[in-house]
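Subject: design request, 220 residues
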């Protein structure tokens, strides 16, 4: 049991405020994600128009071996009786190498496989599916970077696939999608904390109901 009924009510009020704050932050990040996705594809279209569709297409993508420039990890946070995951982006020497096979290219989209041959879901155009996909990817990855393969020699800026002098629109497109990764990871962290708050709130509601019944029995 959690102290008195008054203590429970105060804790429930605090959780409600925290949940509303997280929801507001989640919605703001969703809006930002929508804007970045639209701008990213718009800049990609501009680049294809300026450089030519034959110079910006799936043909230029390196299908041999790609090196992850960013690695998404997580750490478990225990705060105020809440347990949730805080997702972070790590960069540097520790990266994954993923081999892409030509058979995995379908309708201009690349489907990457994990090292354990587990198929990763394609990221859709909707922000909710993007968040859930990143969450699934993170949960399937190692919690630490100790077991990641170091392969810095083949780390090539993907922009160079399309030539030395590329359109500024293509550079802006890359920046848009790099920012999308940051926002998506933040969304996954907020979602994890929000779910922990909701679970804690439901648990305290049950305790409150039990305490009320005990108070009524005592009074009678």
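Subject: RE: design request

Done. Sequence follows.
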């Amino acid at each position: 049991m959690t102290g008195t009924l008054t203590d429970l009510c105060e804790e429930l009020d605090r959780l409600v405020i925290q949940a509303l704050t997280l929801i507001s932050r989640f919605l703001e990040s969703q809006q930002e994600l929508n804007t970045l996705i639209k701008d990213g594809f718009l800049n990609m279209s501009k680049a294809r128009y300026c450089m030519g569709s034959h110079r910006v297409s799936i043909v230029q993508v390196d299908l041999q071996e790609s090196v992850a420039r960013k690695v998404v990890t997580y750490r478990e946070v225990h705060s105020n009786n809440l347990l949730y995951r805080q997702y972070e982006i790590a960069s540097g020497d520790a990266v994954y190498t993923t081999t892409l096979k030509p058979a995995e290219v379908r309708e201009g989209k690349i489907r990457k496989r994990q090292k354990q041959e587990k198929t990763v879901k394609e990221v859709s155009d909707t922000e909710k599916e993007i968040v859930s996909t990143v969450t699934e990817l993170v949960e399937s990855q190692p919690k630490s970077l100790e077991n990641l393969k170091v392969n810095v020699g083949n780390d090539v800026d993907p922009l160079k696939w399309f030539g030395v002098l590329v359109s500024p629109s293509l550079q802006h497109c890359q920046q848009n999608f790099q920012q999308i990764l940051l926002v998506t990871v933040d969304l996954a962290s907020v979602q994890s904390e929000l779910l922990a708050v909701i679970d804690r709130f439901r648990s305290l509601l049950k305790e409150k109901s039990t305490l009320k019944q005990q108070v009524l029995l005592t009074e009678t």
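The first strand starts at residue 65 and ends at 67.
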